[in-house]
Amino acid sequence: MSDYKGVAVYCEARDDKILPIAVEGLGIGRKLADALGQELAAIIIGDKILAQQIIVAGADKVYIIDDAQLKDYQPDAYITALEKAIIQIKPQIVILGQTDRGRELAPRLAARLSTVAIMDCVELAIGPGTKRLLQTKPVYGGNAQAVMVTETDPQIVTIRTKAFTALASDTARKGEVINISPGLDASTIKAKIINRVVEEVAGIKLEDAAVVVAGGRGIGSVDGFKQLDELAKLLKGAVGASRPACDNNWISDTAQVGLTGKIIAPEVYVAVAISGSSQHMSGCSGAKTIVAINKDKEANIFRHARYGVVGDWKKVLPAFIQKIKEL
Amino acid sequence: MNIIVCVKQVIDPEAPPASFKIDTASNRAEMKGASPVIDPYGEYAVEAALKLKDAGGGKVTVMSLGVNLLREVVKKPLAMGADELILLEDEVFANCDTWLTAQALALAIKKKGDFDLILCGREASDTNAGQTGPIIAEILGIPCVILARKLESGDKTIKVERVNSSGYDVIESSLPAVITVSNEIGQARYPTIKGIMAAKKIEPIIWKSTDIGYDGNTKRTKLQKLFQPVHEAKCEFAAGETPEEMAVNLAVKLREAKIL
Question: Has residue A1 got a pLDDT over 70?
């Protein structure tokens, strides 16, 4: 079809460590590259000390783009740098994470390369016969899934957090490191990040918590969320919320779980007064066990829950907290 | 400030999940018994435009692309307070993928001209991709900011608060620019009676594919299959006469199963 060959993964890093989603990207990237009988390349922006972490996670080649203009994240500069790297590497598949950055990098990068991205994939496979990438992504707020095929190269995708498995780190792996100079100048940046504000609540991070206690529209107030917080603290967990609860300002927007919020996979997800819309379930269906408290027996959340109580949370929760303390 | 807002007519995403059905022959989805709506994320974009207009004046033009656009649906942004509605309505648009949609909208935006800002929803509630806005920006060669929760326009620049997973970034961009708007912008206003009456008097401008010079031959993706993942419900309900009793039984069960 074209002279594009191999798979490339853009690896995001923070504090000298590549993100888990980058390791997951390398995991699926390795599988796809093997299915095609081709190489797996990784692209990183910044530090070369990351190269070894990337090679042990599955890459054959690591392309490092290092430039003073790329020290802090600026979307315009990063897109131009990635565009340059992709033109040089010419991979037929490019994988990014569906992260804060991936959401803006992938569509714009694709447009510049005369192709289009498929966002938020949960399954990727090489089509038998066609050798094109079969890209499965949730649509209709999670009500359905679509299998998409991209006709143009490179086939650019973002992958959903925790949807793909990382490979076991193999310290015997060897790889090649190649430097790319992006040749950027300051005029590349037209929309500039001038301040970064962290609003995250104190305590265990929602993404990292083993137990998440989440509340929905039915909680009805800031005070209601204080009760959820009490249970979360008791269970050494974090508090999450559905979109209506955040839209009503009962809790910070950063607590939102769902398609347009965080996608998490805790051991236990306690859903309190959450109806379980598909868009919310997209964010928590990776939980090992879902426990639901809802007064509506027909609520969608009970189709996903392993354990449930049909009842008014205002009566259920205090008794539940009391008993958990006793046991 | 002249603002163009792109909105999409979609099946109602707020309808109960049980009413969601797929016609496998055509690979199309519907919400049984629910009328189409303006995409809620698009409504947030309309709200953002109206907030800017409230603060500094200007004109808000709404653009929508599709087939079988129901007038009572696509006129809602007018009833909310927008000034003008351009419909890109043509049978050939039924075949649009993300790329072609963005291309057609970019062509229409160029034809319209005289704009300072283009707003889109953060994503459409059917495709959940969030690509149309960014692709329009790339086609037009203008800056792009996604996931806005607050906009403040200056003379030739705009300041945007951009949502991220740990808070927000403050971004300054030159104009014209494309900005996608997230739900954190705040509840979209309801149409007032006065607004509804005013909207009735505004005739939408209709452009066909030929009016904007759209060829539609360069589809980049195809939908191979649309399906509903199967869910097996296996919820174990805690027994009890009262909510308190059920709560106690739930706690005991979770402790015994070593889940908590």
Answer: no
**B135/A302 Cβ within 8 A:** no
B130 within 8 A of A138, measured Cβ to Cβ? no
Overall pTM > 0.80: yes
CB pairs under 8 A between A and B: 246
- Residue percentage of chain B with pLDDT more than 70: 100
Q: Do B237 and A304 touch (CB under 8 A)?
A: no
> What is the predicted ipTM?
0.94
Domains defined for chain B, CATH in brackets: 2-212 (3.40.50.620), 230-260 (no CATH)
Report residues of chain B scoring pLDDT below 70: none
Q: Which of B123, B174, B254 sits opposite A291 (nearest CB)?
A: B254
Give the residue, A278 or A9, on which the prediction is more confident.
A9
Q: Do A235 and B168 lie within an 8 Å CB cutoff?
A: no
A107·B134 Cβ contact <8 A: yes
In chain B, what residues touch A317 (CB-CB under 8 Å)? 247
Domains of chain A: 7-188 (3.40.50.620), 211-326 (3.40.50.1220)
Query: Is residue A16 pLDDT above 90, yes or no?
Result: no
Task: Dump pLDDT digits (tens) for A97-153.
Answer: 999 999 999 999 999 999 999 999 999 999 999 999 999 999 999 999 999 999 999
Interface probe, candidates A140, A193, A263, chain B, greatest B C-beta count within 10 A: A140
Is there a contact between B243 and A144 if contact means CB atoms under 8 Å apart?
no
B199/chain A closest Cα distance in angstroms: 28
Question: In terms of CA atoms, which chain A residue is nearest residue B165?
Answer: A254
From residue B51, alpha-carbon distances to A168, B55, B59, B77 in Å are 51, 6, 12, 13
